[in-house]
Amino acid sequence: MVNIAILGFGTVGSGVYEVLDVNRESITKKTGDEINVKYVLDLREFPGQPVEKVLVHDYDTIVNDSEVDIVVEAMGGTDPAYTYAKKALESGKNYCTSNKELVAKYGPELLELAKKNNKNFLFEASVGGGIPIIRPLNHSLTSDEILEITGILNGTTNFILTKMDREGLDFDTVLKEAQDLGYAERNPEADVEGYDACRKIAILSSLAFGENVNYEDIYTEGITKITDTDFKYAAAMNRSVKLLARCKREDDKFFAMVAPFMVGSEFPLYSVAGVLNGVLVKGNTVGDVMFYGSGAGKLPTASAVVSDVVEAAKHLNTNIMTIWSSKKLELGDKSEAVNSFFVRVGKASEATAKELFGDVEVCSAEGVEGEFAFITAAMKEKDFADKISKIADVKQVIRVQK
Ligand code: HSE
Fold first, then answer.
1. Among 83, 199, 249, 342, which lies 20 to 30 A Cα-Cα from 63?
2. Distance from C-alpha of 64 to C-alpha of 5, rounded to nearest angstrom
3. pTM (2 d.p.)
4. Computed from CA positions of residues 9, 12, 18, 20, in that sequence, does the dihedral angle turn out positive or negative?
5. Which of 123, 152, 154 to probe ligand 1 with, by most ligand atoms within 8 A of CB?
6. Is 333 a residue whose pLDDT tops 90?
7. Which residues have CB under 6 Å of ligand 1?
């Protein structure tokens, strides 16, 4: 029997308990052993619920119990998760987590600690919820040099943008609806400002390129400035607006960015709608590979966590190699990145815009007047910034996925 302890009995933690219960038979078969939840750690009591029998309130009960093989953390945040992870690995336990903050900040250190102790630090659920993406990067796409990863990695913002697109609503109205439905937090900053997607692409880029990408180095723009007018232009061009998290290798340089992009209907991530997530990986020999599914939610996220539990149970005393060194990966300066841009300026600036940007693609939208909209050719961010600074009444700038 393999004994596990679940830290936190909130949405994900209780989901892990449920998945292990619902799929007990098949999980036992696939693991080759039975997985037993020996403890659940939570501050709360759960009177009358089955979990009551295994509930503890003190982490030391778990780390000091030599029968616990795997600690599963579903609490979020780095404090006390970081301390708990270190204690577990140092006490000879495997550690599985859905916590992207913990992984983005301490991933290389905890992987190193796991290796030193011949244990595993696994985090499939930290990116893309139920979508398998960490293990495919570590184990399946190993024959390839990864050239680029582009993802819709945040369900909340994708829900908001999809609704703005389909129903012609403005950002504030849809955000309120998302909050009422429980898709968006009361404090939605981490999602709508792109910070959540930023941590997730930092994790994926570190795994893809093998060195540590500091999430604080990634240029990040959220979706709060996207308007219903932008979607009118997008619709006229058979495009939509998506929050893309991207990292790419260009020769020996690496670029990463989180920002809203106009995407065309031919782009594989265009049809990733609502709370769903999608990840497009480009390898130098395999070409494009796409992963799609539920990026959040109780059971999808728990499913990914339990897949880590099964993996850990099959390798209780063998470290599964994960290449993510603590050496910092130097990202190329954002100003050197090449993009093309959708721009809206006041009508009075049409001539100046044409003079500055030359041969642009002129855009129009039904019912929108008194402004000039266009898409630039691909150019370095610094050249674009220089030109656009010369126009006084810029209404909008959105990068365009080419
Ligand atoms: N807030 C996140 C999202 C939850 O909306 O995708 C999953 O990480």
1. 199
2. 12
3. 0.97
4. negative
5. 154
6. yes
7. 129, 154-156, 191, 196, 295-296
- CB–CB of 81/13 below 8 Å? no
Give distance in angstroms: CA of 256 to centre of ligand 1: 20
Residue 183's pLDDT band (cuts 50, 70, 90): confident
| Phi/psi of residue 143, nearest 5 degrees | -80, -10
The position carrying tokens 């941590």 is 199
What pairs with residue 371 in β-bridges?
346
Distances (CA, A) of 156 to 60, 163, 174: 36, 11, 11
- Across the chain, what does the average pLDDT equal? 97
Q: How confident is the model at residue 251 (pLDDT cuts 50, 70, 90)?
A: confident
> Is a pLDDT exceeding 90 seen at residue 107?
yes
Helix (H) or strand (E) holding 62: helix 59-63
Q: For 59-73, how does the pLDDT look when each residue is reduced to its tens digit (9 = 90+)?
A: 999 999 999 999 999
pLDDT of residue 153: 98
Q: Output the CA–CA distances (angstroms, integers) from residue 361 to 241, 248, 341, in the order listed.
A: 18, 26, 10
Tokens describing residue 180 = 């009422």
Distance (Å) of CA 246 to CA 131, 226, 297, 357: 17, 19, 23, 26
Tell me the catalytic residues. Answer: 200
Q: Which atom of ligand 1 is nearest to the CA of 100?
A: 8
Q: CA angle, corner 273, sides to 163 and 136, nearest 5?
A: 150
Average pLDDT over residues 379-388: 98
Distance from residue 32's CA to the centre of ligand 1 (Å)? 33
φ/ψ of 136, rounded to 5, equals -55, -40
The two three-digit tokens of residue 284, written as one number:
């130098």
Q: What is the pLDDT of residue 182?
A: 84
- Centroid of ligand 1 to alpha carbon of 196 (angstroms): 7
Q: Which single residue is written with the structure tokens 């590979």?
A: 289
Atom of ligand 1 nearest to the CA of 153: 6
List all residues 6 or more positions away from 185 whose beta carbon is below 8 Å from its beta carbon.
156, 179, 191
